[in-house]
UniProtKB/TrEMBL annotation:
Family annotation (InterPro entries): AB_hydrolase_1, AB_hydrolase_fold, Epox_hydrolase-like
Keywords, comma-separated and alphabetical: Hydrolase
One of the record's GO molecular function terms: hydrolase activity
A Pfam family hit: Abhydrolase_1
Domain AB hydrolase-1: 10-257
TM segment ranges: none
Keyword Hydrolase (UniProt): yes
Protein name: Alpha/beta hydrolase
Cleaved signal peptide residues: none
Amino acid sequence: MRVRHGGHGPPILLVHGHPRTGATWHAVAARLVKRGFAVVCPDMRGYGASTPVAVRPDHSQQSKRAVAADLVALMQHLGHDRFGVAGHDRGCYVALRLALDHPTRVTRLAVLDGIPISEALVRADARFARKWWHWFFFGAAEKPELAVGADPDRWYGGTPEHMGVEAFAEYRAAIHDPATREAMIEDYRAGLGIDREHEAQDHAAGRTVRCPTLFCWSTRDDMVDLYGDPLAIWRAWAPTVTGQPIDSGHHMAEENPEEVAAALARFFQ
């Protein structure tokens, strides 16, 4: 696993989304370190320079439960038995799973630009399918790897001006690696199957997040358009949740790192 970490103070684990690496947090992490936090920014299992795991028939090797277990082991290795966690995009599903499966480890949870997978799927109407069709395309066998691999740069886009030079270089190396592309697509296959099952089990058992929770959404993304009041959806999973909009498009850590860092610093202090 590739991981960047530094700083002193209360530990915060920052979990990136698809198709980014831990470097997506570079401007946020630097600000949090200056504000007195110890910050850990890994590449999730199979993403960036972290090693993929052999594909299983049920895609459980890329389940949010498996990835969350990786991150608990990482934080213990770094000497953090208890820590705050913030996740963006696909990383918010990992952060949620971490808080549900390891409640004694997570002091506070921040989820950015996402609602639980099962909640998104049960609301997957024509509007969702039109905007987020890749969820279902990535669930198919073989074809997604062929389509993305034909021209990864055109498929994913991105610029060094938007992402940062180092983050962009890492991201391009990742999307041009076939094994990494497969692992990132497997993330979605797991989401449609085993991850959804795990959330259904949580719901049936009445299991919710015990720790204080923050939900942040980008004002120029589609959280409100799709869900009206996404904070209300999160209340069913995290009864103490509070919310804050971020003036940004979807990739808020790159587009408005100052506001993201300020929101996280207030919450995790």
